[in-house]
Amino acid sequence: MDSISAASVADAFSKVQGSGSLVLAKGGREGEIKLHLAGTTAESYELDASYAEGLLKARLDCTSSPLVRVVKDRLFGVVDGSLTVSGALDRLEGTWQATLRSGKLDGSPIVMSVNGAFAPGNFALSEGHVLWRGYEVTGLATGLDLDGGAGTMTGHFHSKTTLSGMDFNFALALASRASSTHDFLAKLSDCRYEGQFTDFVFQDMKTASWPFFLDISSKGLFIKGGLKNEFALSLLADGSISAKTTNPFAFTVDLKGRIRGLDIDLEAKGLGIDMKVLSNLVGGLPVIFEGGRLSGDVLIRGNGNDPDFSGAMRLDDCKLSLPGWISEVAGPISAPIVADGKRLLLSVPSVPIHNSNFALTLELIFDQWVPTDIRIGMRSLASTIVPIETKILGVTIKGFAVPNLDLRIMGSVLSVKGKLELRKTDITVTPETLAGGVEATQAPSSLLDIDLGISFAKSVRVSRQSSPPTRSSHRAMSRRARTPNLADSRAVC
Questions:
Q1: Can you tell me the distance from the alpha carbon of 50 to that of 24, in angstroms, rounded to the nearest whole number?
Q2: Is the peptide bond before 248 cis (omega within 30 degrees of 0)?
Q3: Nearby residues of 21 by Cβ (< 8 Å), 6 or more positions away
Q4: Three state DSSP letters for the chain
Q5: Which pLDDT tens digits describe the chain residue by residue (493 residues)?
Q6: β partners of residue 347
């Protein structure tokens, strides 16, 4: 036995070093190696391998191995895992498992773990788990017949955030028609997929089973879903596209057009959208639609990554709320919506709420299909008194007010401007607020830009909420906003 007193491996990402042992036999045709390598951090590798009588047996364990070695962009973290292989060099089989730690995908934390197995012509995954931005897949399992071009996939999906409450099981089977080629990727380009969603639940939509199939060939891509073909999509090789959805989908549309590279030219007719479902799908909007339906026709043209929209739509029987500002649901309202380039505009001259009315404008500016600039305007009408419940910089305001407000959200910046006339309102402040400070137990989720003029009627009542003293109660101060003195009628941050 020969000892390996010092071994070192280095690349652009880290350096590991260690020692081990090496045994050679039969003129070097057989042997055994054991090696332990570790870095200055938690990164380490343990190799135990032997080769005899034409058979390899090996096990590799790793801890905190940087993922950037194999994935260069978007996904980052370190991997703990193991790999075991055995057999002849041309017919190896084995198992492996991997867990991603400190993972981030597109800047958001991600949790991933999976087990795997492979053999000549076969590849499988089991016990796969992925959690990212509130979307979770558990029990992910796949089986691929690489020679025959067949495979299966099963798992369970659950959403905790944007698609809150969506939950279903899924199963997928594929069969390739390209049996003459040994290239598995070529087999995937000429095959048929069949699958189904089971126990599907999302808001008011429930179904025990929803089958679908997908067909890929040189002619194009074809998808159909539902027991009555409620969903159909075709994308031909020349770029022509057509899609249609019908009830019970929350989105109904008849779409036709063409895609050429990055350029798209699409016409959506008979558009029908359940606004409550859309509101939950988009998430993050300051206005939440509690009901109603959007209908109309829209043209979508230009760069597919950031197209322009044009058309006329209509909102009917819609109810909406402004959480954190208005304490009751407003509506119902019916009004036209105009799509013009990157802008979507809703203007309602009179919105009923609490035996009163106010004027509302909502403007969305889109960038790459996403509303990145959201503007809301509220204007009081004659004798408008709106029930409000809000908290501004540690001051809780609950009661009734005459609003003339402009709210704007761009990224993480919330801008509030205008005037607020308080009537029959309770204002609750803490001793820290009166002292000119705010207890900063955590960083605020958004930056505040407040330019709000507040006037008080005689019926406004200010109360002081007692709270236990803390060390930081007079010193803690958000760097993002200055707490206004309540003697001011105007607070500027």
A1: 10
A2: yes
A3: 1, 2, 3, 4, 33, 34
A4: CEEEEEEEEECCCCEEEEEEEEEEEHHHCEEEEEEEEECCCCCEEEEEEEEECCEEEEEEEEEEEEHHHCCCCCEEEEEEEEEEEEECCCCCEEEEEEEEEEEEECCEEEEEEEEEEEECCEEEEEEEEEEECCEEEEEEEEEEECCCCEEEEEEEEEECCCCCCCEEEEEEEEEECCCCCCCHHHHHCCEEEEEEEEEEEECCEEEEEEEEEEEEECCEEEEEECCCCCEEEEEECCCEEEEEECCCCCEEEEEEEEEECCEEEEEEEEEEEEHHHHHHHHCCCCCEEEEEEEEEEEEEEEECCCCEEEEEEEEEEEEEECCCCECCCEEEEEEEEEEEECEEEEEEEEEEECCEEEEEEEEEEEECCEEEEEEEEEEECCCCCEEEEEEECCEEEEEEEEEEEEEEEECCEEEEEEEEEEEEEEEEECHHHHCCCCCCCCCCCCEEEEEEEEEECCCCEEEECCCCCCCCCCCCCCCCCCCCCCCCCEEEC
A5: 677 888 899 988 889 999 999 999 888 889 999 999 999 889 999 999 999 999 999 999 999 999 998 888 899 999 999 999 999 999 999 999 999 999 999 999 999 999 999 999 999 999 999 999 889 999 999 999 988 889 999 999 999 876 677 899 999 999 888 766 677 777 778 899 999 999 998 877 788 999 999 999 989 999 999 888 899 999 999 999 999 998 777 789 999 999 999 999 999 999 999 888 877 776 666 778 888 999 999 999 999 999 999 999 999 999 988 887 788 899 999 999 999 999 999 999 999 988 888 899 999 999 998 888 989 999 988 767 888 888 776 788 888 888 899 989 887 788 889 998 888 888 887 665 555 544 443 334 457 788 888 888 777 787 776 655 444 333 333 333 333 333 333 333 2
A6: 361
pTM of the model: 0.70
Report the distance separating Cα 398 and Cα 212, nearest Å.
50
Q: Which amino acid is at 466?
A: S
Residues 461 and 16: their CA atoms lie apart, in Å, by 68
Compute CA distances 16 → 5, 34, 47, 49, 66, whole Å. 14, 15, 13, 19, 12
Contact 310, 298 (CB under 8 A): yes
Place of tokens 């012509």: 121
